[in-house]
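When time allows, look over one protein, given below as sequence and tokens. The question is which stretches look regular and which look disordered:
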Amino acid sequence: MKILSILATLVVATATASAHKPSDAHLALHGDGTGLTGRLDIAVRDLDAALQIDDGDGTITWGELQAAAPRIHAYVTSRLSLSGDGTPCSYTLGTAELVDLSDGAYWALPVRASCRPTTLAVTYNLLFDLDAQHRGLVHIDGQTLIVRDATPVTATVGATTSTLAFVKEGIWHIWEGIDHILFLLCLVLPAVFQRRTQRWQAADSLRDVVVEVFETVTAFTLAHSITLVISAVGLVTLPSRFVETAIALSVVAAALNNLLRTIDARWAVAFALGLLHGFGFSSVLIDLGLPSHELIGALLGFNVGVELGQAAIVLVALPVLFLIRRTLAYQALLWAGSASVVLVAGVWSYQRCFI
């Protein structure tokens, strides 16, 4: 009963999580000889969460945004500061306009800074108190910095983005993406409870379990790598809403397969559904606005990070599952846990598609 109570709590806690991809804001700056110019793009939905712009009817109008413009300016200037070569760098915000990015409408604020430094330090503290997964994407003369907290980041103007930064981003994307984690766990969960003749029984050999999980994870890796590359280079592009909804449905499918045991070859499930996850991974790189000369390093680094992130999850989960495979706790986790994932991911699918 305790296991079921915990599972029920998790359903409630995560049913509204990950309805959409984590929020991003983009600060792009480049030197023009006399200073730095650029633009700060913030999602309208995020501004509404921070400043309560909507009057309560569920629709944010241009008039409401215009009326809130002074508050938006004050919010930004209180949470964003620049420093060039160790000296504070003042900046001004211009008249905003609305732009459409991959995941909705953004409030685009022109930025003009008075300095033209060799190194630029950016202290960015927007929205972290509202969304722990929020990212500030700072682009400085082609270099991309990923900000996840209020700690200042420093860029050497004219430098390129470190591949290590994309490795870290790949790891974080897996660890913060509850939908990807649940999908992976749904694939791994039945590996310690295998079919023998016409019956399902606890596995005897850890080696056999490891081999099966390796095949499954490898199939998932190959599949998402294919679609990650073809989407990131622009060969195939899909709407963000469609991709996020499809990923949620893939979680439903993986969990349902645990309940129905329709397809024993989980590597095939992992490959087929992993193709969808690759489009989701690519959206992270596309949102970074990478220049063409950084794309190969970004793809390799991000993919390595994704593999390291999911390998860490498997290395933690698999020994625990093998140890408890003959217990009632494992049966509750397999059946009630998979059923709970179906419910949660079903809610996500609806939210992502219609909200």
